[in-house]
Amino acid sequence: MKEIDGLEKVWATGASPNLADYAFVMAHGRGSDVSDMQSMLPTVGSSNIYCVMPRGPLEIMPGRYAWYPFFWNENLTENMRYLNMSFELLDHSIQHLYDVGFKDEQIVLIGHSQGANLLIEYFLANPRPYKALISMRGCVLGNYGDDRDFHNTLPPTLVLLNAGRRDPYIPMRKTDQSFNMMKRLGANVYKVQYEAGHGVHRSELTDLKKLLAKNFNYEE
């Protein structure tokens, strides 16, 4: 894994872009860094994947980073202000993929926890026909009563909201709210429940490997 020339805070690993069938944009959780996302790749298999991994712009403790300062149900206004900074890193990451030859339909967004929230918000604000969005314990930002107005119609990108039945941080009610919002906007969205907490379960990485082999044709 190496930092991409000309891009601060964005690392790349996996197959060479000219040999890869897909490009993954992988966003780590709060208090983590890019190595956590890299650790998923041996289980998924990355022989035909070029992976870019931006790092959150906020260092909340030494070597630990975040995309915005507060939790999903706190201080929406301040979180959204910082989210714009994080969106710039995603813009640069995706532009890099275009520059090395990838098209939208080859790009898969994958995030865990706060990184999944980030990618959901990015897709809602900048809807493009990516191959898939895989959210591992992610949700739309804002408490249940917060007014979130989205006017964009979402493309038929596959969206998987992977929830943990024992997740202490994102209740199933919040996953359902996020699912219903995206469904209303036209997303091809599914909720997938795992017998897990907030961490990534090995079985969902195995499922992702199977989904990759099936060209992201999802069957419930």
How widely separated are the two ends?
A: 34 Å
- What series of H and E elements makes up the topology? EEEHHEEEHEHEEHEH
The main β sheet shows up as:
8 strands, mixed
- Report the structural category: alpha/beta
Number of DSSP-assigned strands = 10
CATH superfamily: Alpha/Beta hydrolase fold, catalytic domain
- Please write the CATH class name: Alpha Beta
Keywords summarizing the entry:
220 residues; alpha/beta; Rossmann fold; 8-stranded mixed beta sheet; two-stranded antiparallel ribbon; 10 strands; 23% strand; globular
Structure commentary:
The protein has about 220 residues and is α/β, with parallel strands linked by helices. About 30% of the residues lie in helices and about 25% in strands. The protein has a single domain (about 1-215), classed as Rossmann fold (3-Layer(aba) Sandwich), CATH 3.40.50. The chain contains 6 helices and 10 strands. The strands form 2 sheets. It has an 8-stranded mixed sheet with strand order 1-2-4-3-7-8-9-10. It has a two-stranded antiparallel ribbon with strand order 5-6. Strand 1 and strand 2 (about 10-15) form a beta hairpin. It is globular and about 45 Å long.
In short:
By secondary structure, the chain is of the alpha/beta class. It is 32% helix and 23% strand.
Topology:
Blueprint: E1 2-3, E2 10-14, E3 22-27, H1 34-38, H2 41-44, E4 49-54, E5 58-61, E6 64-66, H3 76-99, E7 107-112, H4 114-125, E8 132-136, E9 158-164, H5 172-184, E10 188-194, H6 202-213
Parallel strand pairs: 3-4, 3-7, 7-8, 8-9, 9-10
Antiparallel strand pairs: 1-2, 2-4, 5-6
